[in-house]
UniProtKB/TrEMBL annotation:
Organism: Halomicrobium mukohataei (strain ATCC 700874 / DSM 12286 / JCM 9738 / NCIMB 13541) (Haloarcula mukohataei)
Family affiliation: Belongs to the prefoldin subunit beta family.
Subunit structure: Heterohexamer of two alpha and four beta subunits.
Coiled-coil regions listed in the entry: none
NCBIfam families for the chain: gimC_beta (TIGR02338)
Subcellular location: Cytoplasm
Location of the region described as Disordered in the Swiss-Prot/TrEMBL record: 19-53, 109-130
Biased composition annotated in UniProt, kind: Gly residues: 112-130
GO cellular component terms attached to this protein's record: cytoplasm; prefoldin complex
Gene, per the UniProt record: pfdB
Pfam families: Prefoldin_2 (PF01920)
Native organism taxonomy: Archaea, Methanobacteriati, Methanobacteriota, Stenosarchaea group, Halobacteria
Primary residence: cytoplasm
Name of the protein: Prefoldin subunit beta
Primary role: Molecular chaperone capable of stabilizing a range of proteins. Seems to fulfill an ATP-independent, HSP70-like function in archaeal de novo protein folding.
Amino acid sequence: MQGNLPPEAQEKLEELQDLQETAQQVAAQKQQAETQLQESQTALDELDDIDEDSTMYREVGELLVKTDYAEAVEDLEEKVDELEIRTETLEKQEERVREQFEDLQSELQQMLGGGGGPGGAPGPGGAGGA
């Protein structure tokens, strides 16, 4: 069907496909950020149950490095704050992409003559002239 479309409609269809790909990428990034946020919040909550004098380690690349309680709490709180902002930003971006997609889809339907809804138009030969 794409080969029979007017050039403007073909261009809009390609934009729609690009937007759909962008929406999938944003959704994946958002899911990843939400997962990291949940893990960081869980870790922060677990620190409440740990004695502040306990020996603690944090992962740095492939190494475990000794850290103290206050530093671990501070690092996790900072990470949670950053991930909350990232998640909110991705939610806004996801909404903008969704709106652009819907607008473009509507433009494409109008371009292709989708003025009336299915079944709403009268059949051929409905209007006669005298």
